[in-house]
Design brief:
With about 300 residues, the protein is mainly beta. The chain folds into 2 domains: about 35 residues; about 270 residues, no CATH class. Helices cover about 10% and strands about 40% of the residues. It is built from 1 helix and 23 strands. Strands 3, 4, 7, 10, 11, 16, 17 and 18 form an 8-stranded antiparallel sheet that branches. Strands 8-1-20-23 form a 4-stranded mixed sheet, with no helix packed on it. It has a 4-stranded mixed sheet with strand order 5-6-12-15, with no helix packed on it. Strand 16 and strand 17 form a beta hairpin. The protein is globular and about 60 Å long.
């Protein structure tokens, strides 16, 4: 009886010890969660059809003769690369913040489309703790855009409707399947099928008599506009590294300042010009995009980048 009593007492004491320590650990975890979150640099997309329409060098431009264009309604965008830079930083020599996953599954190195982060208007698409960015000021933002999804107006005979276009802007993208609007599709055999696709591949979806109608194509190589007003930093052909100078909330040009003692998040609104960004060679003469009538897509590039920082 004495032995049993001792065993029972030992078990009771051990159980009480474990329960006390478990409670302490739980309390410690709760205390950790109450610590203030580390301030971050946050990036959000904005799609602006009223923003200036620029050419490759950042100069205002109009739609050339024989071409027509429209400002699409954007649904999603993804970025492949983000860099902070100053005047004499060549591409990659600034502070690279982000590089999206890549793969060699299709042969040569390519962006892995299925792993891209896709975001809509006002949505965060990337953030990084400020402590991971060297303190200093940065004049320019470089972003390599990889994918865009938007709605356009088209005409077929006497019918005028809307459709959704998935457009691949990256230097090279590995694509097995993707959703345009409601349908999951793969690149057709006419454009090389599943695998790597160079800048300018696109897919289109619309409804015809209640049935999804899908086709895809390839814009001419090197024809996609890539706005780069930074004279000391050429951009490799076939990429989509758009560049823009930083603006303050007041609307004036002002470099982004990163301070080691910052306690607040900094939000970068990445405003992209969608001003007549969907451009085609006009054959029908009525200013509607009519693929059946022979209108051919020539350019789907973003027409300007205006990044604004705010606390």
């Amino acid at each position: 009886m004495k032995i049993k009593t001792i065993i029972k007492a030992t078990v009771f004491i051990l159980g009480a010890f474990l329960l006390t320590n478990a409670c302490k650990k739980k309390e410690s975890k709760t205390d950790d969660s109450n610590q203030p979150a580390e301030p971050r640099l946050i990036f959000r997309f904005k799609f602006d059809s009223t923003q200036a329409r620029l050419d490759n060098l950042g100069n205002p431009c109009t739609v050339p003769g024989g071409h027509k264009a429209q400002s699409p309604k954007f649904n999603k965008m993804s970025a492949h690369y983000i860099e902070l830079a100053n005047d004499f930083d060549s591409l990659g020599k600034g502070k690279v913040l982000y590089w999206a996953p890549e793969t060699t599954a299709g042969g040569s190195k390519a962006i892995d489309f299925l792993q891209e982060v896709k975001a809509g208007q006002g949505e965060d698409f990337f953030s990084i703790p400020l402590s991971q960015i060297p303190a200093g000021t940065y004049k320019w933002l470089r972003i390599s855009l990889a994918y865009q999804n938007y709605d356009i107006t088209f005409k077929s005979g006497s019918y005028i409707g809307t459709g959704t276009l998935a457009s691949f802007l990256g230097y090279n993208t590995y694509i097995t399947n993707y959703i345009i609007k409601t349908q999951s599709v793969s690149p057709s055999a006419a454009v090389g099928g599943q695998g790597n696709h160079l800048q300018g591949y696109w897919g289109f979806e619309t409804m015809v008599a209640g049935t999804p109608y899908i086709y895809d194509g390839q814009a001419p190589a090197g024809a996609t506009t890539v706005v780069n007003p930074m004279p000391n930093s050429p951009i490799p052909p076939g990429s989509c590294v758009v560049t823009g100078v930083f603006y303050a909330p007041s609307g004036s040009v002002q470099s982004l300042a990163i301070n080691s003692g910052s306690t607040k998040d900094i939000v970068i609104t990445v405003s992209l010009s969608t001003n007549n960004s969907f451009e085609w060679k006009e054959h029908s003469g009525d200013s509607y995009y009519e693929p059946i009538a022979g209108d051919t897509v020539v350019d789907m590039g973003i027409r300007g980048l205006k990044p604004t920082w705010n606390y």
